[in-house]
Amino acid sequence: MKFLPIGPENREKVNEFIARHWLSTDILIRGEIFDSTTCEGFLLENEESKKIVALITYDIRPTECEIVTLNSLIEGIGIAAKLIDRVAGIARAHGCQRLVVMTTNDNMKSISFYQRNGFDMVKIYRNSINENRYLKPSIPKISRFTGIPMSHEIEFEMIL
């Protein structure tokens, strides 16, 4: 597997991928809008089609690194975990003390994935998704994947 950094040569393809999978390139986390078109990150392409099959974007801050988006279209072979490892290494090199990622209460796959991959559930932001809808009305009320009402954000952290 060869992970490629996001750069000018693939930014348009990355932005299209994010918009397709996240319904927008503006990602809302704890009431803060992240413009994912400016986030750093890494991707994995299908060698034949050159289509993105996995992507991670992140935001480095003084003491922590926030994973903004994480997608892997191929499950069960460790691609997402390898992307996280890569970002954790960069975060350590920048002096970050923790790696943070948010998910929503309906996303059972993510909740179990993060806990299996070194993250600890540290905070629940009750009703934050309901509040976020004022800033981003396109956020669905019910998960299109699980049918569970989307209401809360859950914060996971990995101590670096």
In short:
26% of the residues lie in helices and 34% in strands. With 160 residues, it is of the alpha+beta class.
Secondary structure layout:
Elements: E1 4-5, H1 11-22, E2 26-29, E3 32-35, E4 40-45, E5 52-60, E6 64-72, H2 79-93, E7 98-104, H3 108-116, E8 120-125, H4 128-132, E9 153-159
Parallel strand pairs: 6-7
Antiparallel strand pairs: 1-4, 2-3, 4-5, 5-6, 7-9, 8-9
CATH topology group: Aminopeptidase
Strand content: 25-35%
Q: What is the average of the pLDDT values?
A: 95
State the fourth-level CATH superfamily.
Gcn5-related N-acetyltransferase (GNAT)
- The low-confidence runs, each spanning 5 or more residues with pLDDT under 50, are none
The CATH class is: Alpha Beta
Number of strands: 9
Which sequence of strands runs across the widest sheet?
A: 1-4-5-6-7-9-8
Q: Tell me the radius of gyration.
A: 15 Å
Kindly give the count of domains: 1
Outline the biggest β-sheet: 7 strands, mixed
